[in-house]
Automatic annotation (TrEMBL):
The protein's name: alpha-L-fucosidase
Membrane-spanning ranges: none
InterPro entries attached to this UniProt entry: Galactose-bd-like_sf, GH, Glyco_hydro_29, Glyco_hydro_29_N
All copies of domain Glycoside hydrolase family 29 N-terminal, residue ranges: 106-368
Species classification: Eukaryota, Viridiplantae, Streptophyta, Embryophyta, Tracheophyta
SMART domains: Alpha_L_fucos (SM00812)
Amino acid sequence: MTKEKKVQSTTINSNCYPLIRSLNFIRPISQFIFFLFLSLPFQSLPSSSSSSSSDRKFKDPPPLPILPIPSAFQLRWQLDDMAIFLHFGTNTFTDSEWGSGRADPSVFNPTQLDAAQWVRVAKDSGFKRLVLTAKHHDGFCLWPTEYTDYSVRSSPWRNGSGDIVGELAQAARDAGIGLGIYLSPWDRHEPCYGETLDYNEFYIGQMTELLTKYGDIREVFLDGAKGENEKDMEYFFDSWFSLIHQLQPGAVIFTDAGPDVRWIGDEAGIAGSTCWSLFNRSYVTIGGYDTEYLIRGDPVGHDWVPAECDVSIRPGWFWHPSEVPKSASTLLDIYYKSAGRNCQLLLNVPPNSSGLISAEDIQVLKEFNELKKSIFSLNLAANALLTASSTRGRLQDSRFDPYNVLKEGIYTYWAPEENQYEWVLYLNLTKVVSFNVLRVQEPIHMGQRVMEFHLEILNANDEWKKVINGTTVGYQRLLRFPTVKSQHLRFVIDESRADPLISNLGIYMDEFSIFSNIVYNNTRRHTHLNGSQYLRHIPFNHSQVATM
Ligand SMILES: *[C@@H]1O[C@H](CO)[C@@H](O)[C@H](O)[C@H]1NC(C)=O
Ligand SMILES: *[C@@H]1O[C@H](CO)[C@@H](O)[C@H](O)[C@H]1NC(C)=O
Ligand SMILES: *[C@@H]1O[C@H](CO)[C@@H](O)[C@H](O)[C@H]1NC(C)=O
Ligand SMILES: *[C@@H]1O[C@H](CO)[C@@H](O)[C@H](O)[C@H]1NC(C)=O
Ligand SMILES: *[C@@H]1O[C@H](CO)[C@@H](O)[C@H](O)[C@H]1NC(C)=O
Ligand SMILES: *[C@@H]1O[C@H](CO)[C@@H](O)[C@H](O)[C@H]1NC(C)=O
Ligand SMILES: *[C@@H]1O[C@H](CO)[C@@H](O)[C@H](O)[C@H]1NC(C)=O
Ligand SMILES: *[C@@H]1O[C@H](CO)[C@@H](O)[C@H](O)[C@H]1NC(C)=O
């Protein structure tokens, strides 16, 4: 009884207003509070006399995060926005995509190799991480592994004493940029492939080398690709994933099914216009994917598994002398449809047979970066007068203020009062502006919430007119529409899983995007390989993943 009294007086006195406000929010708590509230006049009179001073003593806490939420490393990964994929190996010298595993190591001789150039190109064009194919399906290793001689050790490059993973790790560290590795499960060279125990030991041995000798690794990228009529075998994914997390706790693991990051489901780099980071790992198998599920995620999923969009700057994943890179405006379009749809863009830029990124690719990346900068460096709403339908917290508390949406980064946000019937942000600009891009971000560390939103402008006839609507937001949503002109805007959230929180709102002018339909060859996975090869699905036991 005394204990209850104590709870009563501190709770009521310090926080009376927010408690009333939340009456209907969480029912069991509100009932308890309601009881306290009713009993206040009878039991708490002495302490209530000091309530006006203590009212100002404590701040309103932030709203509850809504599960699932990202881990610290998933969050760090997502903030990277864009990464470079580097497909490099014997295929670069044999003009192939899937090496047979029989190419002579003597073909591998990138005489001008300079990993610092790869890092420089990535960094200068706004990419935050590099992911290298340390071993592709052909089994040739770009580091001097102890477990096979099918590696740089047997090549003429640096007289067999080179280590590409080591050189890239060093260059990335020097430039302060993250490193990820791809280690193909399917190995067409290794004789023990197909013998389940032996090959799993071999694979874990190689993985351990990569995760212990090269410093901080930020991402481990695995796929379920495998040719037809190849030896059958089981991969011990549960052991692999546990070991990876043990050796590199900061690394996210990418596969079709997570655990940390999922494949988007196509190799065109394009996410669904609705894209949740919410997902059920147990619904998907590695290699046995449901493309629609990967592309959209799951609004009621219980795992946080954001998507990565892999796509190559060229038609193939490896460098081929006959191929040319996509244009900068195509890359910009892909950016809108990947990084602009709550995903990370993983753009493959394959080094050429000299061991350098080709000049024409560098040129395209430079143009792409300039386009992006020229569009997004100026938020036309930067000096707007901002008001909201409601704002959480008290007047002098700026933590939930609508102006937070004009600050960069996801950690400052606008929060509405609880239990509202409408969620609107009003922007009065200092003058009439023309724009055709909307950028919205949610503070995803609090969970992904928004399910439907739209933007309206006040037109010349003083009528509110809808400009664009969308569904999910997540880390970042970019939307393009035909150019409009206005001074008064309102951003309306129509539906949300919980009280919506908005960390960033911007309007921009994009003079470069072509609104005609850019047609991609809508590739299914691995159709970049020639038509006589195709994927075989690898069964994956999910009760094993679930224990991670
Ligand atoms: C490689 O070996 C050749 C001859 O054995 C030698 O001339 C050359 O300097 C060596 N190169 C390197 C990078 O060690
Ligand atoms: C994902 O899990 C939730 C329960 O946590 C369930 O309601 C939903 O149906 C699942 N999604 C799929 C596609 O199975
Ligand atoms: C590779 O790219 C570099 C430019 O970065 C260029 O000098 C070199 O000639 C290219 N090599 C080939 C084989 O195209
Ligand atoms: C913003 O503009 C609208 C439309 O002119 C006006 O009704 C509203 O009062 C303005 N808001 C503020 C805070 O000045
Ligand atoms: C936008 O609104 C229209 C009309 O209400 C609706 O048919 C459409 O599905 C909405 N689109 C999105 C992406 O929400
Ligand atoms: C799409 O594929 C077809 C045939 O595979 C090819 O002829 C065409 O050039 C491709 N288009 C683009 C835009 O790559
Ligand atoms: C396609 O791949 C198969 C098997 O690797 C090979 O025999 C064939 O020559 C390839 N065809 C083309 C057109 O590259
Ligand atoms: C999956 O793994 C669990 C636990 O390791 C095991 O009990 C189950 O039999 C496996 N299921 C299949 C289909 O292999």
